[in-house]
C-alpha cells in the first residue's frame, strides 16, 4: 500500500450537535452500506457511517424490507440514515418517522443519483434544477428533523450546461441544513473521468455558514488530505474507494490527525489480513440477514474488490464468487498464500464501475424552466425507485 503520510492536524468536524471523531463520512451505496459493512468499517476506523439509501415513500408505507434497512446494531453510534424523495410532503413525513421513533441521530437527503430510471422521472441529480421543489423538500425536511441534524448530498448538476450545485448549496444553507456534500461530477459524467475538485472549492466559498464536504476520487488517505488542502472543504465523503478495503477508514483517521487516529495502528495488508477482513465481512452479513446462505451469496460481489491485485487464481476467485456457506469460504481461504505481501499499485486506484459519460435521461422539456409545472409534478410519481448513488 502507499506510503503513509504523517498525520496532519485537522479541525474537528461538527454536524449539528454531532462532533465527529474524524472528518470522514461513508457514502451510501445500494447493496453495500448495510449494517454489516458499516460495522466492519467502524471496526477499522472512525467517522460517520451512512445507511443505504431509503426511499421516503417506502418508509412512510412501512415496507418490511425498508424497515429492516433502517435498523442499526447497538454498536452503531451515531446512527445515520440517508433518505431519497421527490415529494415534499412524503419526505417530511419520512423524516418525522425517523425523529419521532428515535431511529436516527443524523439524516441525509440524496440529490445525487445519476441513474437514468431516476433522472428520467425528475428525481436524483435532476431534481435541484427545479429550484422551488428543491427548496420546499429541503425546508420541510429540515423543519421536521427538529434537533436531528439534516444534511444534503448532491452533484454538480445535470451536465456542464446545467449546473445546480451553487444554487442548491445556498438554498440548503438558508433552509437550515447542518452540512452539504458535493460529489464533484455531473449526472452526465456518471462516475467517469476525474472529479472536479475546483467545484468543491467554489461551493466552499459560496456556502460559509455550515460545513462543506467533498466527494469524488478518494482512493487513498493521501487523496483525502489533498482534497481538503486544495479545496478547503471541511471533510470528505468516501464511496467506491472503500470497496473491498474497509480499513481505508483507519488510514483516513491516521492521515487526518486528531485523537481518532492515535489508536489506529498502520495496516500491513498481507493476503492473510485481507482474507481475515473478507471472512469477518461475510460473518457480519450472515448475522445481518439472519441467514447463512443469503449472507454468503451477498458476499460474492465483494470478491473482486477485496482481492484486487493479490495472487488469487481465477479458479479460486470463481469459487469464492459462488459460495453459499461460511465453511466453504474457510476452505477456499485456507488454500491461499496468506503470507503474500501487499501488492502495491496493483491493489490501489479506482474501484467499482466508472461507466461512461452519457446524455442524462430527463422528463420531456425538463430544462425549459427551473420551476415545476403540474404535468411534471404528476410525472414524478414513479421517481422513487430503489436506486442509490451520487
Descriptive keywords:
alpha/beta; globular; TIM Barrel; 13% strand; two-stranded antiparallel ribbon; 390 residues; Non-ribosomal Peptide Synthetase Peptidyl Carrier Protein, Chain A; 17 helices
Write structural notes for this entry:
The chain folds into 2 domains: 13-266 and 368-382, TIM Barrel; 271-341, Non-ribosomal Peptide Synthetase Peptidyl Carrier Protein, Chain A, CATH 1.10.1200. It is globular and about 60 Å long. The chain has 17 helices and 12 strands. The strands form 3 sheets. The chain has an 8-stranded parallel β-barrel, surrounded by 7 helices. The protein has a two-stranded antiparallel ribbon with strand order 1-2. It has a two-stranded antiparallel sheet with strand order 8-9. Helix 1 (35-44) runs antiparallel to helix 12, helix 9 (221-231) packs across helix 10 (248-255) and helix 12 packs across helix 13 (292-299). With 390 residues, the protein is α/β, with parallel strands linked by helices. Strand 11 (212-215), helix 9 (221-231) and strand 12 form a beta-alpha-beta unit. 38% of the residues lie in helices and 13% in strands.
Point out poorly predicted stretches: none
Q: Tell me the name of the CATH class of the largest domain.
A: Alpha Beta
- Which of globular, elongated, flat, extended, rod-shaped describes the shape? globular
Q: What is the level-2 CATH architecture name of the largest domain?
A: Alpha-Beta Barrel
- Helix-strand makeup class: alpha/beta
Helix fraction? Answer: 25-40%
- What's the Cα radius of gyration? 20 Å
Number of strand segments: 12
Give me the CATH superfamily of the largest domain.
Aldolase class I
Q: Measure the end-to-end span.
A: 27 Å
Number of domains: 2
Amino acid at each position: 500500500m502507499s506510503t503513509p503520510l504523517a498525520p496532519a492536524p485537522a479541525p474537528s468536524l461538527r454536524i449539528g450537535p454531532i462532533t465527529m471523531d474524524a472528518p470522514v463520512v461513508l457514502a451510501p451505496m445500494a447493496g453495500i452500506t448495510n449494517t454489516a459493512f458499516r460495522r466492519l468499517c467502524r471496526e477499522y476506523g472512525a467517522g460517520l457511517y451512512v445507511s443505504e439509501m431509503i426511499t421516503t415513500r417506502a418508509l412512510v408505507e412501512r415496507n418490511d424490507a425498508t424497515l429492516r434497512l433502517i435498523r442499526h446494531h447497538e454498536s452503531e453510534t451515531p446512527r445515520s440514515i440517508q433518505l431519497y424523495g421527490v415529494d415534499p410532503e412524503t419526505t417530511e413525513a419520512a423524516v418525522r418517522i425517523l425523529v419521532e421513533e428515535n431511529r436516527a441521530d443524523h439524516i441525509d437527503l440524496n440529490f445525487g443519483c445519476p441513474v437514468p430510471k431516476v433522472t428520467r422521472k425528475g428525481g436524483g441529480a435532476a431534481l435541484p434544477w427545479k429550484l422551488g421543489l428543491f427548496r420546499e423538500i429541503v425546508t420541510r425536511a429540515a423543519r421536521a428533523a427538529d434537533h436531528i441534524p439534516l444534511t444534503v448530498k448532491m452533484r454538480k448538476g445535470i451536465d456542464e450546461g446545467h449546473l445546480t450545485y451553487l444554487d442548491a448549496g445556498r438554498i440548503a444553507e438558508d433552509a437550515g441544513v447542518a452540512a452539504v456534500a458535493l460529489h464533484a461530477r455531473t449526472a452526465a459524467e456518471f462516475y467517469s473521468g476525474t472529479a472536479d475538485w475546483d467545484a468543491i472549492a467554489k461551493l466552499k466559498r459560496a456556502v460559509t455558514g455550515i460545513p462543506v464536504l467533498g466527494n469524488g476520487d478518494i482512493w487513498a488517505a493521501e487523496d483525502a488530505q489533498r482534497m481538503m488542502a486544495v479545496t478547503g472543504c471541511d471533510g470528505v465523503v468516501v464511496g467506491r474507494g472503500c470497496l473491498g478495503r474497509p480499513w481505508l477508514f483507519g488510514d483516513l483517521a491516521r492521515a487526518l490527525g486528531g485523537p481518532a487516529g492515535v489508536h489506529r495502528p498502520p495496516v500491513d495488508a498481507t493476503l492473510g489480513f485481507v482474507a481475515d477482513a473478507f471472512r469477518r465481512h461475510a460473518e457480519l452479513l450472515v448475522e445481518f440477514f439472519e441467514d447463512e446462505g443469503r449472507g454468503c451469496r451477498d458476499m460474492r460481489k465483494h470478491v473482486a474488490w477485496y482481492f484486487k491485485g493479490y495472487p488469487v487464481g481465477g479458479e479460486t476467485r470463481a469459487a469464492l464468487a459462488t459460495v453459499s456457506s461460511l465453511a466453504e469460504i474457510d476452505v477456499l481461504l485456507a488454500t491461499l498464500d496468506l503470507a503474500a505481501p501487499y501488492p502495491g499499485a496493483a491493489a490501489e486506484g479506482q474501484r467499482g464501475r466508472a461507466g461512461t459519460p452519457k446524455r442524462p435521461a430527463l422528463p420531456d422539456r425538463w430544462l425549459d424552466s427551473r420551476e415545476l409545472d403540474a404535468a411534471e409534478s404528476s410525472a414524478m410519481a414513479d421517481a422513487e425507485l430503489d436506486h442509490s448513488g451520487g
